[in-house]
Amino acid sequence: MLIQDGIPTREDIQSVTPPAHRLAQGAVAIAECFQKIPCNPCAKACVKKAIRVEPDINATPKVDFDICNGCGACVARCPGLAIFVVDMTYSGGEALVKLPFEFLPVPQEGQLACGLSRSGEELGWFPVVKAVSGGKRNMTCTISLAVPKELAMEVRNIKVGGYRDGR
Ligand code: SF4
Ligand code: SF4
């Protein structure tokens, strides 16, 4: 349970997961942010205004899945590392998961990275499709991992230094 071990429950995750028909349409943001804290950089990062923190800054964010285009701009802007983008249309068997990463070294494009579940369980080795810096004033990177579709809702981190070359 989140309040005890920092790991959201299945019900928590389901409450923020886009419906199957939206997932089937392409990339979309998922805000796994469940605690009422005064925070809203995610909403400010989204030029499409697809994330709302209402009625006040203590509310949890809500993603409008019809407006979100999965650009990923919000991922590196969340101080809680709580936003992910999932693209179930990436390839026949793989989904693309964009996740925030704040450690060094940063995995390189073309490497394989060890993907972790929300509880830190190792789920396998997955290709790093892209590694994008957050910019000069933001040390959070956005890492895009190609994962089997059945793990798209499970892989939410990568093991620091858990990288190797080749497919
Ligand atoms: S992925 Fe892009 S469009 Fe979607 S909520 Fe984030 S910033 Fe907005
Ligand atoms: S920026 Fe992150 S932690 Fe803050 S409200 Fe948005 S999703 Fe939650």
Please outline the helices and strands.
Blueprint (H helix, E strand, L loop, with lengths): L1 H4 L4 H7 L3 H4 L4 E4 L9 H5 L5 E2 L9 E2 L19 E5 L6 E8 L9 E6 L5 E11 L8 E8 L8 E9 L2
Antiparallel strand pairs: 1-4, 2-3, 4-5, 5-8, 6-7, 6-9, 7-8
The structure holds iron/sulfur cluster (SF4) (2 copies).
The site of one iron/sulfur cluster (SF4) has 13 residues, from helix 4.
Briefly summarize what is shown.
This protein has 167 residues and is mostly beta strands. The chain is built from 4 helices and 9 strands. The chain has one domain (2-165).
Give keywords.
single chain; 167 residues; mainly beta; 7-stranded antiparallel beta sheet; two-stranded antiparallel ribbon; 4 helices; globular; binds iron/sulfur cluster
Bound molecules: iron/sulfur cluster
Strand content: 25-35%
List segments where confidence is low: pLDDT < 50 over at least 5 consecutive residues: none
**Rounded to an integer, what's the Rg over CA atoms?**
15 Å
Q: Domain count, please report it.
A: 1
What structural class is derived from the secondary structure elements?
Answer: mainly beta
- Give the distance, in angstroms, between the N- and C-terminal Cα atoms: 35 Å
Total helices: the number is 4
Q: How many β strands by DSSP?
A: 9
Strand order of the biggest β-sheet:
1-4-5-8-7-6-9
Kindly state the percentage of residues in helix: 10-25%
Q: State the major sheet.
A: 7 strands, antiparallel
Q: State the order of secondary-structure elements, H for helix, E for strand.
A: HHHEHEEEEEEEE
Mean pLDDT: 96
Shape: globular
